[in-house]
C-alpha cells in the first residue's frame, strides 16, 4: 500500500496543539529550577509534552517491540544497555557491540525526546526487529497500540531516596542559566509533593506495578537495588521475559556474567560513547553515569527527611504490596 505524504500543516499540527495545550496547563517550578507542566496527571518538562503527544498519536506498536520504561534516575541507562545486549547478542561479539560507539541512548532511543515529527514516527516502521525504545511516559499515557499489542514492557524503578538525590544532582549539572538553583531542602519538599519530572513517583510506579501484576507476561517490573544485588539472576530473568533465553551452552560459557560486566557502571563509564558522546536532548552522556551506588542518598539526607519518605511510601504504596528497602538496610546496599 502506498503511504500518503502528510501535508506540512498536518505535520505542524502537534506543535500547535502542544503549544496551545501547554498554555492552559497548571505549572510549578520543578526541583531542577525548570518549569513543569501538569499533563495527564503528571509533572512534565515542556520538551516532553510535545514528545508525549507525538508518541501517543503516531507511534504504532509492533508485536515484537520492547519498551523500557522508567521514571528518571531509576536505572534507565543501565536497563537500556542490558536489554540491547541481551537481544542483539547473536548479531555481534560482545567486544564489538555498537553500545561502545553509540552509547545506550544511541542504540535505544527515547520515544518522547528523540523524534519530533509524525514523519519520524512513520520512519520507525523500517527499523530492524525487535525495536527497542525507552520512555518516561506514565503507564496510563502509553498509546493504546502499546497496551493492546504483544509489545513487551520492562519497567525499572529505584528506591525513592536514591532516585531523588540522583535527580537533584543531575538537575544541578544540566541547569540552564535562566533556571534558578533549588536548594536540597526545597527540592526535597517538591519531590515529596510529587512535583518532579514525571512525578508523583508513587503514581508512576503504581501504574506499571499494577500492570505487571495484571499482565505479568507483558510487563516486567524490576528494581535497581535487586539488579545490583543479583545482576546475573536479573539478566537471565530479563532474557527469559523478552523471549531471548540463554542456552545451557551460553550459561556454561559464562555469557551472562560477561554481559553483566559489560553493562556494569564501572565498564560503562569508560566507554568512548560515555566520555565524549551525548545523550538525549544533547546532554553529555557522562551526566547519565554519576556513582551508580545503592544508598548514596544517605550521605545527603537527614534522618527526618528519610522518615518523611518512609511515611510517604507507607501511605502511598503499602496497599499495593510494593515496597522498598530503606534507611539502615539501604546503608548496607550494594
Ligand atoms: N550501568 C549502570 N549500573 C548502575 N547504575 C547506573 C548505570 N548506568 C547509570 N547508572 C546510574 O543510574 C542513574 C541514572 O538513572 P537513569 O539512567 O534512569 O537516568 S535517565 O532517566 O536516563 O536520565 C545514575 O545514578 P546515580 O549515580 O545515583 O546518580 C547513574 O549513575
TrEMBL record:
Keywords: Transferase. Gene3D superfamilies: P-loop containing nucleotide triphosphate hydrolases (3.40.50.300). It is an enzyme of class 2 (transferase). The keyword Transferase applies. InterPro entries: P-loop_NTPase, Sulfotransferase_dom. Residues 63-319 form the Sulfotransferase domain. It holds the Pfam family Sulfotransfer_1. It comes from the Eukaryota. GO terms for molecular function: sulfotransferase activity. Its EC number is 2.8.2.-. PANTHER family: SULFOTRANSFERASE SULT. Belongs to the sulfotransferase 1 family. This is Sulfotransferase. It comes from Dovyalis caffra.
Amino acid at each position: 500500500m502506498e503511504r500518503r505524504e502528510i501535508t506540512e500543516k498536518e505535520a505542524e499540527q502537534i506543535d500547535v496543539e502542544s503549544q496551545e495545550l501547554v498554555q492552559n496547563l497548571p505549572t510549578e517550578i520543578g526541583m531542577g529550577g525548570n518549569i513543569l507542566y501538569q499533563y495527564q496527571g503528571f509533572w512534565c518538562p515542556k520538551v516532553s509534552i510535545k514528545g508525549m503527544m507525538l508518541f501517543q498519536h503516531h507511534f504504532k506498536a509492533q508485536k515484537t517491540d520492547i519498551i523500557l520504561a522508567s521514571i528518571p534516575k531509576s536505572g534507565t541507562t543501565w536497563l537500556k544497555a542490558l536489554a540491547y545486549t541481551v537481544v542483539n547478542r547473536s548479531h555481534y561479539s560482545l567486544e564489538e557491540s555498537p553500545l561502545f560507539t553509540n552509547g545506550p541512548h544511541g542504540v535505544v532511543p527515547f520515544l518522547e525526546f528523540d523524534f519530533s515529527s509524525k514523519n519520524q514516527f512513520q520512519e520507525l516502521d523500517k527499523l530492524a526487529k525487535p525495536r527497542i525504545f525507552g520512555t518516561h511516559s506514565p503507564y496510563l499515557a502509553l498509546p493504546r497500540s502499546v497496551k493492546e499489542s504483544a509489545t513487551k514492557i520492562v519497567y525499572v524503578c529505584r528506591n525513592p531516596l536514591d532516585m531523588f538525590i540522583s535527580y537533584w544532582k543531575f538537575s544541578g549539572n544540566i541547569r540552564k542559566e535562566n533556571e534558578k538553583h533549588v536548594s536540597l531542602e526545597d527540592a526535597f519538599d517538591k519531590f515529596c509533593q510529587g512535583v518532579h519530572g514525571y512525578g508523583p513517583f508513587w503514581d508512576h510506579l503504581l501504574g506499571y506495578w499494577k500492570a505487571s501484576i495484571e499482565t505479568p507476561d507483558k510487563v516486567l517490573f524490576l528494581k535497581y537495588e535487586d539488579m545490583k544485588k543479583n545482576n546475573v539472576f536479573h539478566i537471565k530473568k530479563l532474557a527469559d521475559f523478552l523471549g531471548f533465553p540463554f542456552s545451557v551452552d551460553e550459561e556454561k560459557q559464562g555469557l551472562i556474567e560477561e554481559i553483566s560486566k559489560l553493562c556494569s557502571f564501572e565498564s560503562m563509564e569508560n566507554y568512548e560513547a560515555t566520555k565524549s558522546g551525548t545523550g538525549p536532548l544533547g546532554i553529555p552522556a557522562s551526566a547519565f553515569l554519576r556513582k551508580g551506588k545503592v544508598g548514596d542518598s544517605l550521605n545527603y539526607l537527614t534522618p527526618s527527611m528519610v522518615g518523611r519518605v518512609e511515611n510517604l511510601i507507607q501511605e502511598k504504596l503499602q496497599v499495593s504490596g510494593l515496597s522498598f528497602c530503606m534507611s539502615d538496610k539501604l546503608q548496607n546496599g550494594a
